[in-house]
Amino acid sequence: MAIETQFSVQALLEQHFDARFTVIKIAPELTLELIEKVIAASGVGLDHTAGERVLAVGDNSKAHELEDFFMLTDRQIAGRHWRVFFHATLDEVTHVVEGTSFAIPKLMLHTRGGIVEVKMGLMSRQLGAFLSALCQLPPGVRTPPIDPIPAPTSTDLANDQWVKAIAGTLSPACEQMLWIMAVRFRRGEIALEAARNLIARIILQSRNSTFGRGMLSGWWMSPLPIADLQQAIQQLLGRPKREFQQVNRFTSEFSLSDGGAAGKAVASSAAGLAAAAFLGVGWISIPAKSVSQLRVSLSSAPGMTCIELEGTSSKRFEPVSVIQPRLLAKLLELLGRYEQALLYRRALFDWEEHPAQLMGKTPDEVQERLTRLTR
Q1: Domain count, the chain
Q2: What is the model's pTM?
């Protein structure tokens, strides 16, 4: 069924999206850089607990990139027309009606929950034809079967064939982490529950870094435990100006305009954005609307921490995807590098070790630990 579904959707894409129409790109022409930008600009991430993938991107923007675009995944469609966002899951769409609004072609996606208006200009005809054809398929076969994050048993971790099969689906860095976890489990250095927890995070990190940032119930997905993620965010943004907690929601506010650590690390239109020296990332210009404050909210969930990123240029906080998506894309990209560095050290060393101590490990200490595990 998975193969049939993938081939039917791919065939519809190729049938309705003309390769000569260069504003629309379909896999395998899509680059990770483009996908990450589109995810940030739409404010919609991928459900990595289901194995979601981006299938096509269409950008009809004129003056600035990704102001008028759509992102089509194997489970949903999302995008924006200037500051108007749209989003619908493919299984919920019942039929599509074409129309115009002030002479601009648009689509009306009729879903079980209401009508979603999509203004895509010249792309509307191709997108509408594809979605209408997709609606002819029963909802159960429009999307591929769920590809969940596996939860290994002790037998799985002792089996080289199982580890090889999973490792073959991961990025190179995460493949190495998986083998480290298998070795540590076999040597009795780590209990099954801790190994399973870390492996779920390793697989999530691989999916984030390979396919684009994940999202769960409107929150960005991070593979780090919440204490590790707080450490990574402070490494990136400096000390918060204000912190508060509401049950399982930890919120920190950072000033980007007062010359503090966060202002030096993450500036908007005036200075750009920088990461810590050990990542080797220099100043990166982000010309756009100024963001004076950044609010980061974290919530712990099984196998991940969920992140909400909001900013403001005055008094009202809004999702960063709304006011400065390029800043959001860069924040998520740089955060991903911290996540990988911390997760790698977490796989190598003790589960209980403080994250600041982990990040303080020298390259020689990391290499020595890896050498001991691979003897």
Answers
A1: 3
A2: 0.89
